[in-house]
């Protein structure tokens, strides 16, 4: 298999592109998509760019019944000098393969698929929005397509990559959010699929999320499912605590998604000489550090918001306010530096960005 | 909405029906399917029987990314006097709604959808196979179809019901199976989705299942994810232990699927005067009862096999053989009575069957 696409079928009619301030998240999709197919006999074949169009699957396709699937999320950013940058995309494709392994799905050739995705973005380069904070969201996903209701891994899969121009996450500036510690529902447990980016992990969180929003919170903080004691994630983001000058984040225990922004934040903080520890962190400890006046900043990290400062936490009816509900200095510096590197405004001394030609 | 179908579109070409001894499980599908659509504005509308055909979905459909979906499995049996019977189908549609609630999906009208399914089976009545042990497997499933990558419950869904003629589970007579207690992977945890029949629970088990099969076992026994101590399920079936004249099965803790065969076995045993307790059962206790010579029978229950006797268990390298690897008297009586009722050979004193006209 060569890294040259075998086929590009152009859409005959191009869509009207929405205004940058109307984009929102994940509502609009570009004119084309990337598709590849896998069968156990041939491996991955037929990489092609096609018009963005419905996927037709047999009603007995494994994805509909047993949910074998994995996905990724990443962004392409337009620089002021009109280049298009990707941020550590090789990490996304490496994680996609890690997810696939947990779901009994075949690996892709990471380098080749990344090349195809660059070609897709190149075809769709006019879709990369220009306003501050906007980007082209990239969603690769693999679905199990064999028509078979037996309980076994599918022998056929489809990889699809779609692109969606997305608006600024912070249209009104960065506002620290209020988060509720979830006591009833759980997101993941050791031995399960929590470390994989797979569909079933996400629908499982909607009930808790809706309940939190109805109670006036913007998201939930997940505790571990075993002892309901240790902090795991916030919504679908990783979480960090700055306590007495040091930054702490839950260790990758198997039930936590290994975020690429998480990884980058850790590397960046250490490059600044700020110590970071990855370890088990109990919610008790967070509250105690607050009582002692040592809890300086709390923030979550993810592809969508990059850095999202947390201004309030509520656990068992006890509310604590962090940094006077303002973004902390370290959170802000992380946000500015990461988004600066992503958009080419700051020199990429980490060598994290990749240009799309 | 009336319980009369608004539309039946007949397939123009009917498929060749496979021989009963070639059926297997979930490989062949009938000529038609039932479809309904939901939108948040209109509720469930447009129940229709259409030719069995691919489902075309936008690549951004929620099912592909966040996995909102629930399904059911049930069977239609042909009696010797050529009637078609369903076994407690109302329990399946009630469980489908329970699953949907956990997945933030809208409920269906259980009675109406059951009527539609009966009409579908009536259209496909020639597909209900006749040989001993065969049946027509019924697979209702709901998938989230809104084209949106935001993390929120879909505003659109599709209910589809497909039918698959399936072969006898026991073509060579009932053979007790050997089961390995799974130590690494977990199936579900409290606060998660274990009690729901949803796709993500199933793909999560494939790795463990493959490993067990490669080691010469036919399935795994799942322990609870918290203490790795209490018995939960076997594969995707509920599990029962007959110890010193009494039958024990794990209680419905939230991480266990409330099986309809499980429910029926409990009711049937009690009607026979055999005590059944639903409670937490540790794997230690099972091994101890074996050491004491009190472990009389072990079997799993589910729609596919009805009753599947377990002849060997292996846990931490310790193998125990149950009832000399033969099916036990109670397991056999349960199997004969349940399948007898399902196929109309035994009087249905429980009023469990429903005839399709």
Automatic annotation (TrEMBL), chains A, B:
Protein's GO biological process: isoleucine biosynthetic process; L-leucine biosynthetic process; L-valine biosynthetic process
Keyword annotations from UniProtKB, A to Z: Amino-acid biosynthesis, Aminotransferase, Branched-chain amino acid biosynthesis, Pyridoxal phosphate, Transferase
GO MF term list: branched-chain-amino-acid transaminase activity
Residues making up the signal peptide according to the UniProt record: none
Domain of life assignment: Bacteria
Family named by the database record: Belongs to the class-IV pyridoxal-phosphate-dependent aminotransferase family.
NCBIfam families: ilvE_II, PRK13357.1
Protein's recorded name: Branched-chain-amino-acid aminotransferase
């Amino acid at each position: 298999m060569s890294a040259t696409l075998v086929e590009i079928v152009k859409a005959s009619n191009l869509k009207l592109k929405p205004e940058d301030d109307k984009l929102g998240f994940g509502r609009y999709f570009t004119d084309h998509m990337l598709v590849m197919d896998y069968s156990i006999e041939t491996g991955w074949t037929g990489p092609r760019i096609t018009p963005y169009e419905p996927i037709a699957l047999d009603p007995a396709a494994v994805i509909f019944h047993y949910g074998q699937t994995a996905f990724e999320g990443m962004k392409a950013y337009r620089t002021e000098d009109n280049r298009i940058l990707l941020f550590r995309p090789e990490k996304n494709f490496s994680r996609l393969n890690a997810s696939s392994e947990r779901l009994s799905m075949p690996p892709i050739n990471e380098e080749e698929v990344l090349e195809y995705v660059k070609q897709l973005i190149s075809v769709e380069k006019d879709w990369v929005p220009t306003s501050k904070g906007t980007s082209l969201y990239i969603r690769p996903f693999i679905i199990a397509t064999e028509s078979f209701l037996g309980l076994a891994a599918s022998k056929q899969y489809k990889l699809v990559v779609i692109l969606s121009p997305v608006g600024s996450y912070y249209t009104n500036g960065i506002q620290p959010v209020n988060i509720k510690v979830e006591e009833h529902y759980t997101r993941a447990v050791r031995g399960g699929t929590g470390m994989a980016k797979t569909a079933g992990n996400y629908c499982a969180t909607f009930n808790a999320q809706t309940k939190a929003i109805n109670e006036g919170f913007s998201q939930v903080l997940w505790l571990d499912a075993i002892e309901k004691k240790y902090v795991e994630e916030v919504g679908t983001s990783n979480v960090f605590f700055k306590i007495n000058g040091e930054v702490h984040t839950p260790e990758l225990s198997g039930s936590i998604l290994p975020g690429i922004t998480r990884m980058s934040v850790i590397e960046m903080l250490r490059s600044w000489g700020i110590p970071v520890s990855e370890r088990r962190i109990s919610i008790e400890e967070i509250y105690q550090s607050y009582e002692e006046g040592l809890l300086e900043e709390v923030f979550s990290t993810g592809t969508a918001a990059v850095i999202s400062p947390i201004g309030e936490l509520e656990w068992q009816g006890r509310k604590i306010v962090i940094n006077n509900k303002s973004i902390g200095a370290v959170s802000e510096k992380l946000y500015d530096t990461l988004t600066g590197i992503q958009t080419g405004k700051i020199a990429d001394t980490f060598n994290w960005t990749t240009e799309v030609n």
